[in-house]
Structure formats: structure tokens, C-alpha cells
Amino acid sequence: MEATASAAAASVFDHLEQAPEDPILGITVAYNKDPHPGKVNLGVGAYRTEEGKPLILNVVRRAEERLLADRSKNKEYLPITGLADFNKRSAMLILGSDSPAVVEKRLVTAQCLSGTGSLRVGAEFLARHYGVKLVFLPTPTWGNHFKVFMNAGLAVKTYRYYDNKTRGLDYEGMLEDIGAAPSGSVILLHACAHNPTGVDPTPQQWEGIRQAIRNRGHLPFFDSAYQGFASGSLDKDALAVRTFVADGGECFIAQSFAKNMGLYGERVGALSIVSKSSGVATRVESQLKLVIRPMYSNPPIHGASIVALVLGDGDLFSEWTVELKGMADRIISMRHKLYDALRARGTPGDWTHILKQIGMFSFTGLNKEQVQFMTREYRIYMTLDGRISMAGLSLKTVPLLADAIHAAVTGAKA
Ligand code: PLA
């Protein structure tokens, strides 16, 4: 029979090869498959409590309770660019409420699907409307940056950023590469807590980077996925972005509330495009809608409503800053615990970078073979580039990690 024959025939997808797992999210897949009770996931950058549990911030619960109790709320579609209150407050959070761009209405903000979605919408907009279809990413960078921009149709190149020898910023190399990039290139910058290195420019260096970018007429595109996680202060962590916006020039900013409000799965973020005049900003907004509408029509309402409430209520906002500082401080204390544990074991090498690096991650300098050894023998799950999510560590798991690093470095057997 014809139906049977066609059912028996080769699948229309027989030509597909098995794709590899994602280098970061695939670590969680492998971790979940491991039945061992002592396993530790330090792959994805997701905050855990001292008990190793995901954390829902108290302000988030309070905001959700208010939303639930408020019978005037509904589940109607949001506008294409999302919740207006959320957009306004997100922009003010990163730019400052007295920002010239805000006061002069020179910007448009669109609620997007967390940081990734904001980057992608920005990239799609650039691919359609910006003359120079070339973006420069730091080496190294969050791996997904390459795919986000390439899939949107931009060419991707890199600029020097991290110096393996000094384990610090290759400031000269960075300025040279920015200076040599074709005029008008898009330059992707991590607003703070650079992922994966944990190395950020100083305020003076940011000023030098700003000048180098503006001198060449480049377009800065900030990825702000960790505001509040670097220093514990929302304002301090916005310094780089504000330095650029203060000069009156244009820039793109992708914001994520995944980490700083613990809203990972709610997918809350924003893309802001700062223009030279309010007239341009209005036209940018009209075109931005045309980019978004065929992609996902409009963004989800729940997470953005939580953020809008927290940012808009003095009481919730101040509680948030305390909880945020609590998370940042716990991460910093884990840096000290891990450093001390390595010192106590006499692990060869200079581990001061674990103390110096900023944000959620430690870029340990461990190589792929050492990481694979640690996963195999100690069930420590982490990315192959030697990055450790310090936010996933606890007092209980530090000794195991230190043992694993010690064994990996000294070539000892587990
Ligand atoms: N930008 C940077 C620099 C990031 O590190 C991440 C997340 C994002 C954007 C996107 O986050 P969002 O879409 O969830 O808002 N990086 C994680 C997770 C925490 C991931 O890879 O998706 C990481 O482990 O690197």
C-alpha cells in the first residue's frame, strides 16, 4: 500500500548528522545524566544558594504576590516592543535616570527575550539597517556571541582582549585592533564582569576604549548580562555604558535580568538603541517593530511585570539591591575559600587570579584535558575552556573542587 511504502521509505531528515551539545548548556545535560549524588555543576552561570539550590529572590516573590492579587492585571498581548514601564525603567537602570539620552528621548527600548534575544534582535536590526555588516568580538567571549551575530547575517571578527601571560587585559592589543578595524565596525563590549575571563577594563581604560571607538566611528554594542554582579553595585557596574552614552554618541545595549534578578527561565531582557536625536529614535523604533513582529510578535508579560514592579517601587528596589549584593558577596567569599583551599594543598601555580577576577566566573587556566580529568574522576562539571561558575560553588563543594584542581595540576590520580 502506498501509505506503508512511504512510511518505510527513508526519512526526509535522514541526511541529518547528530549535532554536538552546546558547549555551555550541554554541560548541564551531561550533569543531569550522571546518577552520582556527589556531582557538582559549575558549568552554566546560574546562582546557587549555600545549599546548592536555585534561588528565587524575596523581592521577586513579593512582586509576584502583588501581581497575583491585582485583579486589574490581565494576560493580553503586550505591544510589539513590550511593557512600556519595564522598558523605561530598564533603560534608566543601565543609563541612570538623569542620562542625557533619557532626558532628550534619544533612545528606544524594546523588551526582548532575555539577554540572548536582545542581542539577536539588535543583530537582526543591524543586518537590515546598518551599513557595516561586521562585528568585532573580544577574544575570548561568551561562545554564543559568534552564532547570534553570524546567524543574523553579520560577518564576525575578533579583537584582542585577554592576555594569557598576565591573566589580565591586553589593553594595548585591544586598542590596536579597534584602531585597525574598518571604520564603522560594530564593537561588542561586555558591560561588566566579562564572560568567561572575569577581567574588566579600569575606568581609565574604558575612557581610552571609548576614544578609540569614537575616533574610528565604530558602533559600540554593549552586552550587559551581569549588572550588579561585578561590584555588587548597580551603578558602578553601569559605568562603562554611561561613559559611552555621556559623549552623545550612538550605541546598542542588550540587558538581561536572568542573573541579577534570578529570572533565568522567565526570559526578561531589553534592547536599547541610543540615537543622536529623538527624531531618529522614533524612526528606529518603527523599524525595530518590523524586525520583531515576524520573529515572535511580542514578548511574554509575566517576567517583565515582575521587573517593572521591582524597579518602580522604592521599597522593593532597595530590598533588591540588598539581595543582589548578598549574591555578589557570596561569590566573592567563594573566591577566597577556593584560593585558601588551593594554598592549603600547596597546589603548584599562582592562583591569585581567582581572587582578582570579577563576576560569576573564574577563568582558571586549566586546559581541556585537565577539565575532562576533573569531570571523569571528581564529577565536577565545567566548560572545557577551564571556566568555573563560582556562583555554583558552596562551602561544602569547595574542598572537592580544590582536590580535583590539585590532582589535575599535579597529575595525581583521583
Ligand atoms: N551575554 C553573556 C555575556 C552571557 O554570559 C549570557 C549568559 C547571556 C548574554 C545570555 O543570557 P540570557 O539570554 O539568559 O539573558 N551566559 C550563561 C548562560 C550564564 C548561557 O550560556 O546561556 C553562561 O553560562 O555563560
TrEMBL record:
GO terms for biological process: amino acid metabolic process. It holds the Pfam family Aminotran_1_2. Its cofactor is pyridoxal 5'-phosphate. Residues 38-405 form the Aminotransferase class I/classII large domain. Keywords: Aminotransferase, Pyridoxal phosphate, Transferase. Its EC number is 2.6.1.1. It comes from the Eukaryota. InterPro entries: Aminotransferase_I/II_large, Asp_trans, NHTrfase_class1_PyrdxlP-BS, PyrdxlP-dep_Trfase, PyrdxlP-dep_Trfase_major, PyrdxlP-dep_Trfase_small. It catalyses: L-aspartate + 2-oxoglutarate = oxaloacetate + L-glutamate. It is an enzyme of class 2 (transferase). GO terms for molecular function: L-aspartate:2-oxoglutarate aminotransferase activity; pyridoxal phosphate binding. GO terms for cellular component: mitochondrion. SUPFAM superfamilies: PLP-dependent transferases. In eukaryotes there are cytoplasmic, mitochondrial and chloroplastic isozymes. Homodimer. Belongs to the class-I pyridoxal-phosphate-dependent aminotransferase family. This is Aspartate aminotransferase. It comes from Selaginella moellendorffii (Spikemoss).
